Amino acid sequence: MTSSLKMNRQAMVSFLQTEFPQYVGEVSEVEANYSLLRQPINETHLRPGGTVSGPTLMALADVALYVAILSKIGPVALAVTTDFTIHFLNKPRADRAIMAKASLLKQGKRLVIGEVELYSEGETDLVAHVVATYSVPPLK
């Protein structure tokens, strides 16, 4: 994989607001093959027992990987998730934002595989680890 950046943070945020306005998280960093998103947590993200819900973590991880992929291939709105595996490792802090650090592992002609590390802001222990695959329409 070459390391050229196709979309910077500002272009990414503008693209997401236009093409995918329901996206979750705040785009903190974008580099070629990498993104960092931050999701502030409030009571709407909590499940019984006062922990951050699985769907909150999964949505954030999915968007983080989408951003990392677009940083590499450019604004391809129809890149879609085809496989998503999450391992919940530790209880997230309910009083801190969740951070999602996504990176690409392999880029083929039609499939891109990446991983996402999720952790509570300011903490080092992972709360979840994701490996996912995206299908990318043919690039022109």
- Overall radius of gyration: 14 Å
| CATH superfamily membership | Hotdog Thioesterase
By DSSP (H or I, 4+ residues per run), the number of helices equals 2
The largest pleated sheet is described as:
6 strands, antiparallel
As for the number of domains, it is: 1
**Which percent range describes the beta-strand content?**
35-45%
CATH architecture: Roll
Let me know the average pLDDT. Answer: 95
Order of SSEs: HEEEEHEEEE
CATH C-level category: Alpha Beta
Strands of the biggest beta sheet: in what spatial order? 1-2-6-7-8-5
Percent helix range:
10-25%
Organism: Marinospirillum insulare
Domain Thioesterase: 49-124
Protein name: Thioesterase domain-containing protein
Compact description:
This protein has 140 residues and is of the alpha+beta class. The chain contains two helices and eight strands, in the order H-E-E-E-E-H-E-E-E-E.
Write the layout of secondary structure elements.
Blueprint: H1 9-19, E1 26-31, E2 34-39, E3 46-47, E4 51-52, H2 54-73, E5 80-88, E6 98-107, E7 111-120, E8 126-135
Antiparallel strand pairs: 1-2, 2-6, 3-4, 5-8, 6-7, 7-8
Domain Thioesterase: 49-124
Pfam families: 4HBT
Protein name: Thioesterase domain-containing protein
Describe what this molecule looks like in 3D.
This is Thioesterase domain-containing protein. With 140 residues, the protein is α+β, with helices and mostly antiparallel strands. The chain has one domain: Hotdog Thioesterase (Thiol Ester Dehydrase, Chain A, Roll). The strands form two sheets. The chain has a six-stranded antiparallel beta sheet with strand order 1-2-6-7-8-5. The mean pLDDT is 95.
